[in-house]
Amino acid sequence: MAILLDRRRFLGGLAVGCSAAASPLMTPVVFASAPWEQRLVVLILRGAMDGLDVVRPVGDPAYRAMRPTLAQGGLPLDGWWELHPALEPLLPLWEAGEMGAVHAVSTPYRDRRSHFDGQDILEAGTGEEGLAGAKDGWLNRMLQAVPGIEAQTAYAIGREELKILVGAAPVSSWSPDARLELSPQARRLLEVLYHDDPLFRAASAEALGIVDELHREGQSGGGELAGHVQLAQFAAARLRGETRIASFSLGGWDTHGDQRRTLARALRTLVETIQALREDLGPVWGHTAVLCMTEFGRTARENGSKGTDHGTGGAMLFAGGALRGGRVVGDWPGLGDGDLYAGRDLMPTRDVRAHAAWVMRGLFGLGRDVLDGAVFPRLDLGSDPGLVL
Amino acid sequence: MPFDPILAAIRFGTGLSPRVAPPGSARAMLERLRGPDEAAAAWPIPTYDSLRPRFEEFLATGRAVNEARKGGGEAPVEVQERLASLRREAHAERSAEFRATLARLACAEDGLRERLVLFWADHFTVRGKSGAWDRYITPYVEEAIRPRVAGRFGDLLFAVTTHPMMLKYLDQDRSVGPGSRGGQARGRGLNENLARELMELHTLGVDAPYRQRDVRQLAELLTGLTVNGVSMAYRPAWAEPGRETVLGRTYSAEADLGTIRAALDDLALHPATAGHIARKLAVHFVADEPDPDLVEAMRRAYGETGGRIGAVVQAMLAHPAAWAPEKRKVRQPIEFLAASLRALGVEGAWLLGRDEGQTDELFQTPLAEMGQAWQQPPGPNGWPEEAEAWITPQGLAARIDWAMTVPERILAELPDPRAFVEAALGPDLPREVSVAAHAAERRDEGVGLVLASAEFQRR
């Protein structure tokens, strides 16, 4: 039935010369509402966030000695954990139970400690076998498992490609600073020009569809290049409507040197991002989950330049009214000499994908077999950490 | 598949031009590449070395201003003014260097050389970690990379690895042998960043058989190599004592650049490096999934010539798979801008004459919108190669927007789209592009449609 086709296939299949904007079918009414009310935002923190500095295990007897210049000035949570001081603006959220952390987690990626492979694995949601040509990302595979997904159900936001959302399920992608104004004739001719090139045809159809939708909403788009706050605001605007999944990334986490300054800067962008999401989501924040995932942790010990090098285990921050925060979740492996991974890194005690899987199960009711099959192949789901309220 | 001049200009150069004839043969392309660097002479860019005195003054003045502030006061007005003027100057220079780069891409006879410079600058990506260092990326490329784009890979590798821009970018200036005199005295230690990227990105490739132990050993071997002010320095007192073993080969305990040179030469000649570089060149120029036989021919040429890049390029141009008519690569945004300016016949002198504001508005902001902010790749692995990474809805929208709106701001009179389509794509163009060029209602739209077409976006 034509009206159930997703936008990408719909536009791709339009006869040449029929402009999408002129079509009576191209109204928001066409698109069935998403299968759930809950929202999931996945923020990818590129560069490897130092979980040990962001959520500090000051109760561990080895901690302070390992980090002579870094372990100062934390915000006490419960005597055992402290938060990095740059997260102070989010303390009220933490105390309200709308923000928390999972610690000593990692993807299955081990030993090479390459950002790019680490991010590829994180977004592919696979084991290391995913490095050899992962075809899709885990958020996309999750969408593939749900019937009736529309392109606008999920949004990849920003200028870069988000591999986490790449795949067979239709998704939208846009950057809030983009603009595309075409005369009807130029638009028709462009459709002819791209007709035989599937890559160009799909991208232009999607772009035109989004621009039309923004026009209907009275937004023109364009202007200054989007920073993290604009990305968050655009995400929130989509999520207030039909969109249920959004993802974008924040960089600046590769703190090899002068980490007190460099990490504080990265955390400020994260703070502003979460604040913007919360503010702009309004009541929708109450059924939203935000997961902040990074490719791996960093070395347990400070390096020679008041920073940290690439490591293994780390932390995932989470926020949102749909989650049970105000705590640090996880099995603590300890930081003693025998406790570290390869004698240098925080030992991961759980696969970070298990947490993401349980959050999706709690939010969307997905079956266990889908989660440890199609979405995260061969994942050991383990028991429910109870992150979702 | 025979040599095709049109494809040669589009796939291995910076596009067709009404002013510059396409290459006549693969041999002519290679001879030109071995010959004098005419584009560098015509549109000069200063080397890093020539800018060092002012860079040093810039950093020293900045320090003076900061120290005065830390002490609770302000530096003398003339010092603050000097800092502001140095900052303006550096900013203006960076903008001028971008225009010269664009002029070379748009106007050079030897498009292959320009493409190789872009390729190697991306392979050896650097970024500035603070504002001041960001401004010297183009002079680094001019000095360390451009003269060596077709020479021995080992020479290129050494020039880049010992360049202050790379040492700074990959934290080598922070790495001190923990057992060295400097390390002991100051309680400082190793930073593995350069060693890791050297193996993973610059030479062997991530799939090669090396381990964390090799990274660590190479990091120890590299200690002593650092930056002093804005120059490369070797400090024996920072070098980790003893011999290091990397990939099964043990190097001299001598703390000097010679030991580093020996290790880099071995990395350059490693079989994994030959395969990595051959494949990466083929992926960049020919196809995201290149013909294995093409890659093999290039790998062999690398091995047989001790890593001569010119020979690898020659093997690529001699292989039929390199001339497959289907255009499987998408031009990266900088290549798209360059090819557009080239097809429009924009003159180098006009480009050089733009001011900073126009440079931002016409070129640099659009590049960022297309997903390739100038000299700001996402990480040390540089820009993505896959077509899908570039032709996103937002990235394509930015290309279409530029094609439709910017050319008329550049040229006093736009070309007739019916003639322009052939200037941009050659005589054998697909019918639909020709139809679109003829059917456009307006000149700017006709030119825009040609530039926005998939046929022009691909190479």
TrEMBL record, chain A:
InterPro entries (UniProt xref): DUF1501, TAT_signal
Pfam families: DUF1501
PANTHER family: BLL7424 PROTEIN, DUF1501 DOMAIN-CONTAINING PROTEIN
Name listed for the protein in its UniProt record: Twin-arginine translocation pathway signal
Organism, scientific name: Rubellimicrobium mesophilum DSM 19309
TrEMBL record, chain B:
Protein name: DUF1800 domain-containing protein
Origin superkingdom: Bacteria
A Pfam family this chain is assigned to: DUF1800
InterPro entries on file: DUF1800
